[in-house]
Amino acid sequence: MAANWDALGDLANVAQLTGLDAIKLIGMIVKAATTARMHKKNCRQFALHLKLIGNLLEQLRISELKKYPETREPLEQLEDALRRSYVLISSCQDRSYLYLLAMGWNIVYQFRKAQTEIDRYLKLVPLIALVDNARVR
């Protein structure tokens, strides 16, 4: 029963982040990672990876790319993955020590899963840029 309430809380947190673009979400993740109480190393490594990605994404004019359906969908899926990642990082701040101790390996697995999902969408960025360049011509 408690797991159901945790899942509902996570859904509520994700819903609150709706409307934020990838750059803002990455900024929030980086900031939250600096105040993580548990899994600090994982949080900071994950945030460093995302900070590099965010610096590159800033150059893409994401708001411009989201005007067109063919480039909007993969960017929105990336943003969804970033929202879930923010909830994961936040869980390292909010949870009790005993909870994190019991869920330790699961959280490490969730970090790997989140990074793999984000990287999967990032592999589409060159194709998105190519589509955008073709449209501009």
UniProtKB/TrEMBL annotation:
Membrane protein topology class: Single-pass membrane protein
GO molecular-function terms, A-Z: calcium channel activity
Species this chain originates from: Nymphaea colorata
InterPro entries: Adaptor_Cbl_N_dom_sf, MCAfunc, MLKL-like_MCAfunc
Subcellular location: Membrane
Keywords linked to the UniProt accession: Membrane, Transmembrane, Transmembrane helix
GO biological process: cell surface receptor signaling pathway
Domain MCAfunc: 25-137
Residues passing through the membrane, by range: none
GO cellular component, one term: membrane
Predominant location category: membrane
Domain of life, per lineage: Eukaryota
Lineage, highest ranks first: Eukaryota, Viridiplantae, Streptophyta, Embryophyta, Tracheophyta
Coiled-coil annotated spans: none
Listed name of the protein: MCAfunc domain-containing protein
